[in-house]
Amino acid sequence: MLSSISLLLGIMLVVAVLVCALLAYRLAQLRKAGTPVLLRELPAAADEGWRHGTVHYGDETLRYFRLSSLRPGPTRTLTRQSIEISRRRRPEGTEADILEGMIIMELEPGADDAGRAYELAMAPGADTAFQSWLESRQSHRSQRRRSA
């Protein structure tokens, strides 16, 4: 019976080490390749729902990877043509504790496939890059019309 318990504890230890190694690898990969941001889904309470992560810009999508997730792909994918900034603001109240110096952008509903609204917080330099990426997208008018 004692050897069964030792075997079980050994297996649990190996699994825990593997999970920690995967998390450390994901964290290292995301930090070196993405832009650090905080994202939250709306509606949300005043200071709640913010999640740390990184964004990766693609030709047609913005992929958000949550730092505390082991998921191999992006946590959220926002479509470039559907992203519209409804307003910008500075952190308010206790948000300033974790978002000091950041710019918060409220995105209109519909940026993802589920039609959700988000707030995205990033440093001023990252905000400039995000705005440039959005402004360089192809306009809706210049897209070809599809025949029915």
Notes on the protein architecture:
- This protein is of the alpha+beta class and 148 residues long.
- The chain has a domain at 34-135: PH-domain like.
- It is 32% helix and 28% strand.
- The protein has 3 helices and 7 strands; from the N terminus they run H-E-E-E-E-E-H-E-E-H.
- The protein has helices spanning 2-33, 96-99, 124-135, and strands at residues 35-42, 51-57, 61-66, 76-79, 85-89, 103-107, 117-122.
- A 7-stranded antiparallel β-sheet has the order 4-3-2-1-7-6-5, sandwiched between helices.
- A hairpin with an 8-residue loop joins strand 1 (35-42) and strand 2 (51-57).
- The mean pLDDT is 86.
* CATH C-level of the domain at 34-135: Mainly Beta
**End-to-end span in angstroms?**
71 Å
List low-pLDDT spans: none
- What is the alpha-carbon Rg in Å? 20 Å
Would you identify the CATH architecture of the domain at 34-135?
Roll
CATH fold-level label of the domain at 34-135: PH-domain like
Per DSSP E runs of 2 or more residues, the count of β-strands stands at 7
Please give the share of residues in helix.
25-40%
The amount of beta strand, in percent, is 25-35%
> What's the name of the CATH homologous superfamily of the domain at 34-135?
Pleckstrin-homology domain (PH domain)/Phosphotyrosine-binding domain (PTB)
Instruction: Identify the strand order in the major beta sheet.
Output: 4-3-2-1-7-6-5
Largest sheet: 7 strands, antiparallel
State mean pLDDT (0 to 100 scale). 86
Question: What count of helical segments does DSSP give?
Answer: 3
Give, in order, the helices and strands: HEEEEEHEEH
Overall spatial form: elongated
- How does the helix and strand content classify structurally? alpha+beta
Transmembrane segments: 6-25
Protein name: DUF2550 domain-containing protein
Keywords: Membrane, Transmembrane, Transmembrane helix
Pfam families: DUF2550
